[in-house]
């Protein structure tokens, strides 16, 4: 089992920045993809950013150049740096791990609200 705990969400003005963190614990070792998803009210959950074991990343088109996914393996933590935030970035953000062995895990989510 793997436990994922997100933090760092909050209220920010348009143009501001936030850094989300996802701390992992439990049986965390193994090749995996880590990702951040988000879900706005009335909308489907969407992939925001992902990173594989080799460090390759991919991003939702609307966040390219503004968001950066990274990891600190020593801290077992994955980050999402979000800059130049827009009102449309408002959503609950979820951390996600998917292992090659087949298991996958979600965090509980953290609310990000972009508003003036």
Structure, explained:
The protein is mostly beta strands and 116 residues long. The chain is 0% helix and 55% strand. The protein is built from no helices and eleven strands. The strands form two sheets. Strands 2, 4, 5, 6, 9, 10 and 11 form a seven-stranded mixed sheet that branches. It has a four-stranded antiparallel sheet with strand order 1-3-8-7, with no helix packed on it. The protein is globular, with a radius of gyration of 14 Å. The termini are far apart. The model has no long low-confidence stretch (mean pLDDT 95).
Structure described in brief:
The chain has 116 residues and is an all-beta fold. The chain is built from no helices and 11 strands. A hairpin with a 5-residue loop joins strand 5 (46-51) and strand 6 (57-59).
Task: Describe the secondary structure blueprint for this structure.
Elements: E1 2-7, E2 10-12, E3 18-26, E4 32-39, E5 46-51, E6 57-59, E7 67-72, E8 77-82, E9 91-99, E10 104-106, E11 110-114
Parallel strand pairs: 2-11
Antiparallel strand pairs: 1-3, 3-8, 4-5, 4-9, 5-6, 7-8, 9-10, 9-11
Please state the CA-atom Rg, rounded to the nearest Å: 14 Å
- What number is the mean pLDDT? 95
Largest sheet: 7 strands, mixed
**What's the count of strands?**
11
Approximate helicity band: under 10%
Structural class, by secondary structure, is: mainly beta
- The SSE string, one letter per element, is EEEEEEEEEEE
* N- to C-terminal distance: 40 Å
How many helices does DSSP assign?
0
Regions with little confidence, pLDDT below 50 for 5+ residues: none
Q: How much of the sequence is in beta strands? A: over 45%
Tertiary shape: globular
């Amino acid at each position: 089992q793997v436990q994922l705990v997100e933090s760092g969400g909050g209220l920010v003005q348009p143009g501001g920045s936030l850094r989300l963190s996802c701390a992992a614990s439990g049986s965390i070792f193994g090749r995996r993809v880590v990702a951040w998803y988000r879900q706005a009210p009335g909308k489907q959950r969407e992939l925001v950013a992902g990173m594989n074991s080799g460090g390759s990343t991919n991003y939702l088109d609307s966040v390219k150049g503004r968001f950066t996914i990274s990891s600190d393996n020593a801290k077992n933590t994955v980050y999402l740096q979000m800059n130049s935030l827009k009102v449309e970035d408002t959503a609950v953000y979820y951390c996600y791990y998917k292992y090659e062995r087949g298991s996958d895990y979600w965090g509980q989510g953290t609310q990000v609200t972009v508003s003036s």
